[in-house]
Structures are given as C-alpha cells and as structure tokens.
Design brief:
Radius of gyration: 21 Å
Largest sheet: 7 strands, mixed
Shape: globular
Mean pLDDT: 94
Number of strands: 16
Structural class: alpha/beta
Number of domains: 2
CATH topology of the largest domain: Dihydrodipicolinate Reductase, domain 2
Bound molecules: nicotinamide-adenine-dinucleotide, 1,2,3,4,5,6-hexahydroxy-cyclohexane
Number of helices: 11
Distance between the termini: 34 Å
Low-confidence stretches: 52-66
Strand order of the largest sheet: 3-4-2-1-5-6-7
CATH class of the largest domain: Alpha Beta
CATH superfamily of the largest domain: Dihydrodipicolinate Reductase, domain 2
Helix content: 25-40%
CATH architecture of the largest domain: 2-Layer Sandwich
Order of helices and strands: EHEHEEHEHEHEHEHEEEEEEEHHHEH
C-alpha cells in the first residue's frame, strides 16, 4: 500500500515535532505539506525536511528523509482541501481548531487534532455532531498520555481488577515555565485537560463535578495569574481525582500519578531512569519539557493513528473524548472564577451518538 500523505497545520513546537517524527520515525506515511501563518517558519521546516532543496515560495524540492518534497501552503484551509493531502495533523493553537476541524470533515479527511479539541463545550459538541452525521470516525484527539507505556500499563493493571475497584487518583503536572501571556484559564484548558482525559480514561467514567482551587500564586508569574492550581474531580462512578497543575515550576517537566484501589495502589512517572553518582551527588535527570517526557508516547500515538487511518478507523481518543474534556474544563474555569464546585454539563452520549 502506498504511503499516507500527511499535511501539518501549525508548525510551532508540537507541529515541528510531529513533522520530524513523520519524516524520521513513522512508517507508512510521508509529509507532503505544511501550513503556518509564520511562513518563514514553515519554509524553513519544509526545506529542512525536504532535504534542503529551495523552498521557492511554495514547494521545497529535493528528496530528503521524507522521500519527497514538502509543499508550503499559505492558507491552512487550502492545505486541508489539497488533493495531495490524505490526512491532516492539526497542531495550530486551540482557538483555530474548530474551523480547521470542520474543514477536515467537509473534505472527508482523517485528522489527528492536538488538544484541546476546541475552546469550549458548545463548539466541541458541534464537531462531534458533524462527525457523527458523516457516519464514520475521522477525528482523533492528541491525548498522548494514553499511549505512554507507563500510563498504558497502569490502565491495564486497573482494568485487570487485581487491585480491586479504583477509588482515588492523585496527579502531579508541572512544567518548567510558560511564556508571557499565559492566563489562569489556560492552565485548565491547555494543561489540566490532560488529567481530565486521564481520569475519565483510567477510571472509565465521566467527571460529573469539578472544583478548582488556587493557592497564593508563585512569585514567578505576573499579577493576576493563578499558578499553581489544585483541582478535585468527582466522577460519576463515585471515584475522585485530584491534580496539582503548576506550569511555572522552574525546575523542569514532571508528570506522575498514583491510583489507589481497594487492595493496593500503583504509581507511575517517578522518572527513575538512569541514576548517576558523581562528585558528591547522586540523581537522575529532570526532563526539560513534554517533548522529552512523552517522546515515545507521541511516536506510538502517531504510528497507531497512521495505521488506523489506513484501515479507515481511528485508534485513540475520539471527538467525544475531546468534547467531554472540553465540558469538564469549561466547568473548571467557572469553578476557578467562582471558587465553588461546578457541575459538568455534559450532553447525553446516547442521544448525541445514537
Ligand atoms: N499533546 C501535547 O502534549 C501537546 C504539547 C504541546 C502543545 N500541544 C498542543 O499543540 C497545539 C500547538 O501548540 P504548540 O505548543 O506547538 O504552540 P506553538 O505556539 O509553539 O505553535 C503554534 C503554531 O501555530 C501557528 N498558528 C497560529 N495561528 C494559526 C492558525 N490559525 N492556523 C495554523 N497555524 C497557526 C503559529 O504561527 C505557530 O507556529 C496546541 O493545540 C497545543 O495545546 C499539545
Ligand atoms: O500544551 C502543553 C502540553 O499539553 C503539555 O503536555 C502540558 O504539560 C503543558 O502544560 C501544556 O501547556
């Protein structure tokens, strides 16, 4: 079977990372087009991944590791509709996802959409409904932790029933730093959204209520930004989860969680890789960011998505998962603003999906 031809929309940190992985590590796919309003960035990437041929304003000629040229297409919607693009990766900022997702659905193109699905529950639900009308799943959401071997092992352990019924999930999610312009609600929508998905997935239940607390902020953020945040999720099956999200921790990237069940607990993300002893000190390395910690998870996520698209399927978090997470985050932002627990307003799945 011929390679799936991939177009990437948005080639900042995540889009460029996915581009590299398609070209260098993923089989059965080939990068054919990129689009970014920062055209210089798109041109540089296209030239680099096409093997250094001239960009010429539209196409980087010359065969490289990708085995072909990568075309720069100015308008993201034109990339989605381009005949040479079989499937799309959306790595644009969240505010651009809704319009670009609708374009993918209109053109019948499978799409791996980075989280968040969209910026709010209403538009996410519209996406779910539009996909459902087509009668085939085209959207997979980039909740990559589901593909991380440690998270996957934890899921398998909990599902095996060996530890009994899961009761609690404790999560820690720390980033080294976030750029200026990072606002309090983005900590919920862009960062905590991962724990929202993890809790729903690991415990197999929707989240029905969320409370987001904010202690006195770190001195590392501008006035008015609430960082860190501490949230409690109440799940429909009676379990609970808590999460600390701290996106200006200064030290490095740290993601871990402990599940507590009736007959035992299990912890992942301790980062106990290589431990060194040198010059009066011992220890390991703290990853700089998500691209280091979840490198393998992204590889597995994208490879499985490519393989599934070849079969006309998706193999990972669905548009519904993206919508459910958006609904929880919307309630979380309301809770952050009010200081009160907020019930999650989630449409009935059977009514929406039949
Ligand atoms: N799964 C993860 O762990 C993970 C990690 C990082 C980012 N993300 C997600 O990936 C997406 C991109 O994040 P990032 O960190 O790469 O951001 P970034 O700011 O580094 O890159 C975003 C890129 O999109 C471009 N862009 C801006 N508006 C656009 C538009 N309308 N259409 C197309 N491109 C546009 C920008 O010029 C920039 O190059 C976001 O949805 C983010 O939440 C996911
Ligand atoms: O967009 C990023 C990404 O989703 C990372 O996985 C998360 O750790 C960051 O907090 C977030 O800003």
């Amino acid at each position: 079977m011929s390679d799936l031809r991939i177009g990437i929309v948005g080639v900042g940190a995540m889009g460029a990372d996915h581009a590299e992985r398609i070209v260098r590590r993923i089989s059965g796919a080939r990068l054919v087009a990129v689009s970014d309003p920062d055209t210089a960035r798109a041109e540089e990437l296209a030239v680099r991944l096409s093997g250094g041929g001239p960009a010429g304003g539209s196409a980087a000629a010359g065969a490289g590791a990708a085995g072909g040229a990568v075309r720069v297409i100015g308008d993201p919607l034109e990339l989605v509709g381009a005949r040479e693009v079989d499937a799309v990766i959306l790595a644009s900022p969240g505010f651009a996802h809704a319009e670009q997702l609708f374009a993918c659905l209109e053109h019948g193109k499978p799409v791996l959409c980075e989280k968040p699905l969209t910026m709010d529950a209403a538009s996410s639900l519209q996406v779910v409904e539009a996909e459902h009308k087509l009668g085939k799943p085209l959207i997979q959401v980039g909740f990559m932790r589901r593909f991380d071997p440690e998270y996957a092992a934890l899921k398998q352990l909990l599902d095996s029933g060996e530890l009994g019924r899961p009761l609690l999930l404790h999560n820690v999610h720390r980033n080294k730093a976030n750029g200026p312009g990072f606002r309090s609600e983005m900590i919920v929508r862009d960062s905590m959204v991962h724990e929202v998905d993890v809790a729903r997935w690991l415990f197999g239940s929707e989240i029905s209520r969320i409370t987001v607390h904010a202690p006195k902020p770190t001195g590392a953020v501008p006035d008015g930004v609430l960082d860190p945040q501490f949230a409690v999720f109440e799940l429909a099956n009676g379990a609970m989860a808590d999460v600390e999200v701290f996106v200006n921790f200064q030290v490095g990237y740290e993601v871990r969680c402990e599940a507590v069940a009736e007959r035992g607990s299990a912890t992942i993300g301790l980062g106990s890789g290589v431990v060194t002893r040198a010059a009066g000190h011992w220890g390991g390395a703290v990853p700089e960011d998500f691209r280091v910690r979840f490198d393998l998870a992204y590889d597995i996520e994208v490879q499985r998505w490519i393989d599934a698209v070849g079969r006309g399927e998706i193999d990972g978090p669905s548009a519904w998962d993206g919508y459910a997470a958006a609904a929880v985050c919307e309630a979380g932002i309301a809770s952050l603003n009010s200081g009160q627990p907020v019930a999650v307003d989630l449409a009935d799945r059977r009514t929406v999906l039949g």
